[in-house]
Every structure is written in structure tokens, then in C-alpha cells.
């Protein structure tokens, strides 16, 4: 009898709590230690969702800004890396800047990224080839805004791109090398613009050394041309510190988390 009474009292206590929970409004999830805002690009006449993950704890002086294309897809992973590595000295402090779109529309996201992350018209079913103007948005509109709002060092900027984003970052490296110090290329879709390999063979940046990390899933097909890009850049005296990683047991769709983890450690080595 005492057991039954105890259970009845316990259940009675749960009912109001459950009712209160049902009455709570459901809100959109927020990322830890991050903020976001919308920026209108005059160059593209397009709104972009800019998400910024801040360093945990106080930071001495200015730190790098890590610009991440495909922010809708990759920013949350990068923000999680900041949170998990805080205080463990696995990466140096930095501001992570995700560049995405404000609409909650995956089909439009795919169309827009295909247009903004490619520099050539691929004659595909969807529009491509607006990468040059997107690069101008990042360099001329977004970077000055971030440098005004946050204590970042423009001499240590990092650019991250995966798939078409990796192709975009390769184009920026070869066409506007001064815009970033470090370029992180995850499964770059060089197949869509193979002429970049010739540009890479002729690339020189000895006066302003660059750091380049290239990763490719170990199960990806050779036509991606990531290994060929590495070979084209792997020349003594061209001012490029180069790292290449074939990620075991990963394919094109599963490689981003591993790529980001290793690439960010390359870009942001722990401070002594």
C-alpha cells in the first residue's frame, strides 16, 4: 500500500511539470558562444547569413579570422571544434566566420552555392560561374566588416572550402593570394575547372608565403584531381607550405568533419 501511495504521489508531481513543458514555446537552436547577422552584398545584390563563433575566454591582441564557405553546412561543425578544444590548446584562438544564406531552403541553397562557388560556366542544368563576384564580396565587403567588428589580424586570415567551396578557395589562392595567409581545401572539385592545374604549376608567392592544406576522402574517385593539385603546387621555392591528407574510410559526403578537424589544427597551431 505504501509503495502504491508513493508512486501515485510521484506521478502527481510529474503531471504539472509535463504540462508546463508542453506550454513552453519551441525556439530555434542556438550555437554556443556564437552570434549571427545578415549582410547585404551590393556586389551580388544578395543577402548572406554571417555566423561568428568567438574564442572562449580572453584573447591577447588580434587573432586570425577563419572564413568558412558553405556556412549553412559547415559552420556548426567548426563551432563545435572551438568548444571542444577550448582550454586544451589543440588550436590557437580565432574567430570563425561562416558564410551562408538566411533562407531555410535546401534547394535554393544548392542552386546558390553552385553559382557562387564556381568561377566558370559548367553548362550545367543549374547556373554556375559567379565565383569571381562572390570572391569580391568576401574580400571587399565581408572582410572589412569583420575586421571592424572583431579584433582580428587580416595578415593571418584563413579561407576554408569543401567540394565546390574547395574549388572556390583554390581560385582565390591562385587569383587573389594576398587575401588570405592560409587556404584549407577539402575535396576540392578541381574536375570542374581542370585548367587550374596549369595555373597552380606556375603559382609563385615567395614574397608572401602561403600555407595550403588539401584533404580528400580515401574512398573518393581519382577524377576529383586533388592529388594532381597537390603535385602542381608541390614545388620548391614557390612560397607554399603544403600538406596533403587522404582521409581513410571517408567518401566525398562523409569527409567534412575529419577534414575540418585536421585542417584547423594545421591552420591554427597551438600557441607556445
Automatic annotation (TrEMBL):
**Official protein name in the record:** Alpha/beta hydrolase-fold protein
Family, per the entry? Belongs to the esterase D family.
Q: Signal peptide position in this chain?
A: 1-20
The source organism is Sphingomonas tagetis
Keyword Protein transport attributed = no
GO molecular function ontology, one term from the record:
hydrolase activity, acting on ester bonds
Q: State the InterPro entries in the record.
A: AB_hydrolase_fold, Esterase-like, Siderophore_Hydrolase_D
**What keyword terms does UniProt attach to this protein?**
Hydrolase, Signal
Q: Which Pfam families match?
A: Esterase
Amino acid at each position: 500500500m505504501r509503495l502504491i501511495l508513493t508512486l501515485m504521489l510521484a506521478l502527481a508531481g510529474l503531471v504539472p511539470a509535463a504540462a508546463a513543458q508542453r506550454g513552453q514555446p519551441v525556439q530555434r537552436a542556438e550555437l554556443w558562444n556564437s552570434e549571427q547577422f545578415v549582410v547585404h552584398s551590393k556586389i551580388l545584390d544578395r543577402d548572406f547569413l554571417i555566423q561568428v563563433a568567438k574564442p572562449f575566454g580572453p584573447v591577447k591582441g588580434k587573432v586570425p579570422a577563419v572564413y568558412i564557405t558553405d556556412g549553412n553546412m559547415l559552420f556548426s561543425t567548426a563551432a563545435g571544434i572551438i568548444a571542444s578544444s577550448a582550454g586544451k590548446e589543440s588550436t590557437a584562438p580565432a574567430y570563425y566566420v561562416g558564410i551562408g544564406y538566411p533562407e531555410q531552403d535546401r534547394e535554393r541553397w544548392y542552386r546558390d552555392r553552385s553559382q557562387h562557388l564556381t568561377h566558370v560556366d559548367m553548362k550545367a542544368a543549374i547556373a554556375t560561374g559567379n565565383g569571381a563576384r562572390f570572391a569580391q564580396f568576401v574580400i571587399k565587403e565581408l572582410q572589412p566588416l569583420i575586421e571592424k567588428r572583431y579584433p582580428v589580424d587580416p595578415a593571418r586570415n584563413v579561407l576554408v572550402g569543401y567540394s565546390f567551396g574547395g574549388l572556390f578557395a583554390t581560385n582565390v589562392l591562385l587569383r587573389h593570394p594576398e587575401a588570405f595567409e592560409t587556404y584549407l581545401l577539402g575535396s576540392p572539385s578541381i574536375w570542374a575547372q581542370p585548367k587550374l592545374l596549369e595555373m597552380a604549376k606556375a603559382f609563385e608567392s615567395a614574397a608572401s608565403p602561403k600555407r595550403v592544406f588539401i584533404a580528400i576522402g580515401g574512398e573518393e574517385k581519382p577524377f576529383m584531381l586533388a592529388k594532381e593539385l597537390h603535385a602542381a603546387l608541390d614545388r620548391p621555392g614557390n612560397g607554399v607550405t603544403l600538406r596533403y591528407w587522404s582521409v581513410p574510410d571517408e567518401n566525398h559526403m562523409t569527409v567534412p568533419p575529419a577534414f575540418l578537424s585536421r585542417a584547423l589544427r594545421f591552420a591554427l597551431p597551438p600557441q607556445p
